[in-house]
Amino acid sequence: MIWLTWRQYRVQTLVTLAAVAGFAIFLLVTGFQMRDLYDSTVAHCQGEACKRAKDGMLSEYQTLAYGVTSALLLVPGILGIFWGAPLIARELETGTHRLVLNQSITRGRWLMVKLVAVGLVVVVVTGLLTLLVTWWASPIDRINVDRFTAMLFGGRSIAPIGYGVFAFTFGVCAGLLIRRTVPAMAATLAAFAAIQILVPQAIRPYYMAPVRADVALSSLSVQMGAPAEGWQGLNVHLLGSGDDTRLEVGVSRPGDWVVSDPGRVLDSSGREVGGTQGCAKPSMEPFECFAKSDLHIEVAYQPADRYWTFQWIETGIFLALSGVLAGVCGWWLRRRVA
Q: Judging by DSSP bridges, how do beta strands 232-239 and 246-252 pair with one another?
């Protein structure tokens, strides 16, 4: 069975490995160039020169970094569409499964060999790519300090391995249930795209209870426009009109993930304040007012040191879902496929 599976998928495997090798060479060449630039201009810089050095490196490599990360985000879905969906659907569509299932091999073993043999290649491909991309992008990530953003979180570390296994297993399950290759590929694409949108927005923020903090607005004016490790003013929304005018203030802190919406301006007793008392006068520069007030906002955030915990949680979730899908495939194959 292993030899038969290899014979069926040897072309796809060799083409994929050749593409991975070419991508790896590109990442190694540009990665060492990026490191040389980082070590010579950013690693030991100070003051205003440091800001210029970082801006210069970002202007040269930021667009490329987004492109590389986007490519990695697509890989799990591509493997699910072109490897997972046709794995069983093609056999059912052409009727070749009847020849195999009439031999001495059991249905469960036939499915298991296919899932394990091709699934291991998926793990190797996604694992190598995410290892290379994480290494390649580390100088840019050290400058931006934003690994919790949706794109970077999904394109770094170990999460792509979980995505790859899930997309592959979902494709297999879709092919087994739909029994047609092209519709199964379309279903896999739709499901993978939906999950990539849903998880970062609706599920990931709640893997752990967020930390809550009161952020004094007087601290934000110092941070604006200057590199800092504390809370920084991100945006200010002016709402209402007249005496009902009020502000909502968004903040950020390098490395942390703020999961709450822009906060209402509160006084020391926790009561929302508006109008000029709450720095909400249209003709006023709000950060000038912040510096002279004792106002604050409430913020909920995920600290930067939870990054790897979130990576393991998300990878574990997708691997567990893959196991459930594999179980569904086994049950359906034994009970339903003639």
A: antiparallel
Q: Are residues 156 and 307 in contact, defined by beta-carbon separation less than 8 angstroms? A: no
Model confidence at 79: pLDDT above 70 = yes
Summarize the confidence of residues 28-56 as an average pLDDT.
Answer: 88
Tokens linked to 290: 């912040």
Residue of 37, 66, 247 lying closest to 152 (CA atoms): 66
- Could you count the other beta carbons within 10 Å of the beta carbon of residue 200? 17
Tally of residues, the chain:
338
**DSSP single-letter state for residue 285:** -
| Alpha helices by DSSP H, the chain | 2-41, 47-79, 85-94, 97-101, 107-144, 150-154, 159-178, 181-198, 220-223, 286-290, 307-335
Mean pLDDT over each residue of the chain, to the nearest integer: 84
Picking from 218, 248, 250, the residue whose alpha carbon sits closest to that of residue 233 is 250
Statement: residue 161 has pLDDT above 70: yes
